[in-house]
Design goal:
heterodimer, A: mainly alpha, two-stranded antiparallel sheet, 20 helices, B: mainly alpha, Helix Hairpins, 2 domains, ND/Mrp_TM (chain A), NADH_UbQ_OxRdtase (chain A), transmembrane (chain A), membrane (chain A), CPA3_Na-H_Antiporter_D (chain A)
């Protein structure tokens, strides 16, 4: 069983190498990527069943024991994240393949796209199973380097401008992360997370606080937590639809994952719950207010993405087992729903030729199937019962009420308001884009459309509409089915999330897994 | 823990200069700033590794307690390699960005004081570009997804 863990990173990397060599053979590349990601899905499913029944699997890479070598730790949280990420990457790959077949190489130049995509996958999986702070840094760098390339695919003016912002912000956060690792090494003499967790407790409280905040700042930039979220809505929407979908679904969640690890494994004694709650509050409210002002659906979704990170930070700040379980469920929900919505928006763009709600109309008539796909995703994100967005939020609010401080009640109110405002923004999209007849778009005026701003790169007009290939529809429909499955299987999934959260109740679970015979 | 004051001063200067340069508008300076800050961080890792010592891991040459700590050196090497790769990518990005700025007045990366430059006068300083201008523009247009997008305000009719 232990052989599977390194394979999760190794397979995508080997696949990337193979895809690079096969650059001239498009079909072979698609085959390599699909087979690789399918293999990771299967392997991580097997691993998930094993880890859930037998406990974490820990590998000392290269045979060096834990404090000296690199450890890979596959516990419940790591493996479920790998599985969900692999499923998303596979779904989006099918979507991108459909798009590539329909449009040729323009949007997603296949020879570069596939190797980079697989390196991104390897970086993601590596970040999830890293048992070592520096390995986490390497995982982050792998996925970020790949994301730089994917974001600037085809090198058009708009993408270069968006890419520059994104890259400089990411570089800054990487440097902060590296500096934080240096401080932690200086203070504890190790970068193995389990050992850091043990040794950090002996440090003075203020040193612990500084180390914790140094790490959290770096992760908050990556997770797009207010006030470090300004870069996200400007950079994500310009990328090709499949790339935006993957970025929106997965990249910020790696940051959230790292924040969970920092807060529950590394620095258990540092009490920063109240500042975290304030940040969560601001992220929720300011993010969603940004979304309300957007005319472009992709930008609107990017702002809701920022906003909903606030729910996860709220859950982490409460810190009880129920709150963490709800957070984990919410992360899974949000990864799948955001990815799906961005894919559905990609389809809308193909049918309507633009993503601005000022210029779209008659979508329900033009393409009922795409409309249904968008509608289910939108209702889910808006938190309408019985969808998973509702269940996750109820879990969070429940944990907040149990905590019972005034601040947590404020956050529950803000969370509910954010949920309603998300619904408002998405229902407005529905009314304008899907229900409004195509003939009404010209000269339409409504208070709903007042004071909306277009994206900075928006030049008006529409591009030529394109056909929607069956493969893209199938991929999106599959993802929508997955979001519905989150509701259908909410019971078992929530139980699983509770068991995952229980691992963090006592940080020794993690430490014992890495050092079965006790530290030193 | 003892650390060399020279290294600490050097690190502080690199951080200060690097951050200042990163705040400039020009992308090339931002890149230089990033490289300085990256090297300052590498120095930070070296500083936290404690006093210098003899070569580690090789056994039998010196006592264990005089060896330098090898782990930070490994971390630094990895960080240097990563920074190197990213620097190469950002250079390519800067070149592309400059290229796009040459082609139209849409480029954000051209600083304001250059607004009096006409396209001809800018091109005149780059002879190879000037000589082969039409051919290069054609290649560039072909490689672009929306060649029309570069001309501001023109509606796309593809």
């Amino acid at each position: 069983m232990s052989a599977i863990v390194p394979l999760l990173v190794l397979l995508p990397l080997l696949g990337a190498a193979a895809a690079l060599v096969l650059g001239a053979y498009r079909r072979a590349q698609v085959l390599v990527s699909t087979v690789t990601l399918t293999a990771v899905v299967i392997l991580s499913s097997i691993l998930l069943v094993h880890v859930d029944s037998e406990g974490p699997v820990v590998i000392d890479v290269g045979g060096w024991d834990a404090p000296f070598g690199i450890v890979l730790v596959a516990d419940r949280l790591a493996v479920i994240m790998v599985l969900i990420a692999a499923l998303m990457l596979l779904g989006v790959l099918v979507f991108a393949t459909g798009q590539g077949i329909a449009d040729g190489d323009r949007e997603t130049p296949v020879s570069i796209f596939h190797p980079t995509y697989l390196v991104l996958a390897a970086g993601l999986f590596d970040a999830f199973i890293a048992g070592d702070l520096f390995n986490l840094y390497v995982g982050f760098e792998m996925l970020l380097s790949a994301s730089y390339v994917l974001l600037t695919l085809a090198g058009t003016g708009a993408r270069i401008r968006a890419g520059v912002t994104y890259i400089i912000v990411s570089l800054t956060s990487s440097i902060l992360f590296l500096a934080a690792i240096a401080f932690i090494y200086g203070a504890t003499g190790t970068v193995t997370m389990a050992l850091v967790a043990e040794r950090v407790r002996d440090l003075p409280a203020d040193v612990q606080l500084i180390l914790c905040i140094a790490l959290l700042v770096a992760f908050c930039i990556k997770a797009a937590v207010f006030p470090m979220s300004f870069w996200l809505p400007d950079s994500y929407p310009t990328a090709p639809a499949p790339v935006t979908a993957v970025f929106a679904g997965l990249l910020t969640k790696v940051g959230v994952y790292a924040i969970i690890r920092t807060d529950t494994v590394l620095f258990t004694e540092v009490d920063i719950d109240i500042p975290l709650m304030v940040i969560a509050l601001l992220t929720l409210v300011i993010g969603i207010l940004g979304a309300l002002a957007q005319a472009d659906i992709k930008r609107l979704l990017s702002f809701t993405l920022v906003s909903h990170i606030g729910y996860m930070i709220f859950g982490i700040a409460i810190g009880s087992q129920a709150a963490l379980a709800a957070t984990i469920y919410y992360i899974i929900h949000h990864i799948i729903v955001q990815t799906t919505l961005f894919l559905a928006t990609g389809l809308v763009e193909r049918v309507g030729g633009t993503t601005s709600i000022n210029r779209l109309g008659g979508m329900l008539r033009a393409s009922p199937f795409v409309s249904v796909l968008f509608f289910i995703g939108a209702m889910n994100l808006g938190g309408i019962p019985p969808f998973s967005g509702f269940l996750g939020k109820v879990g969070l609010f429940d944990a907040g009420v149990t905590l019972g401080t005034p601040l947590s009640y404020v956050l529950i109110a803000a969370g509910a308001a954010t949920s309603l405002l998300t619904l408002y923004a998405l229902v407005r999209v529905w009314n304008m884009v899907f229900w409004r007849p195509r003939s009404d778009v010209e000269g339409y005026s409504s208070p709903l459309l007042d004071s909306l701003t277009e994206g900075p790169e928006d030049e008006g007009g529409t591009v030529k509409t394109k056909t929607v290939p069956k493969l893209m529809l199938t991929a999106t429909a599959g993802m929508v089915a997955l979001t519905v499955a989150l509701t259908v299987f909410a019971g078992p999934l929530f139980d699983f999330a509770s068991r995952t959260a229980a691992d963090f109740e006592s940080p020794t679970t993690y430490v014992d897994a890495v050092f079965p015979g006790g530290v030193e | 823990m003892t650390a060399s004051a020279t290294l600490i001063i050097l690190m502080a200067v690199l951080y200060a200069v690097g951050i200042t340069v990163m705040l400039e508008r020009s992308l090339t300076r931002v890149l230089i700033g990033f490289m300085l800050v990256g090297n300052a961080t590498n120095l930070l890792i070296l500083i936290v590794s404690g006093p210098s010592g003899t070569a580690p891991i090789v056994t039998g040459t010196s006592a264990d307690d005089t060896m330098a700590d090898p782990v930070p050196q490994v971390l630094m090497l990895t960080a240097i390699v990563i920074n190197f790769g990213i620097t190469a990518f950002v250079l390519a990005l800067i070149y592309r960005s400059w290229w796009l700025a040459q082609l139209g007045d849409q480029g954000d990366s051209v600083p304001d004081q250059h607004t009096e430059d006409t396209e001809e006068s800018t091109d005149a300083t780059f002879d190879p570009v000037d000589l082969d201008d039409a051919a290069l523009k054609k290649v560039l247009a072909d490689s672009d997804e929306h060649p029309d997008e570069l001309e501001h305000g023109r509606e796309e009719t593809r």
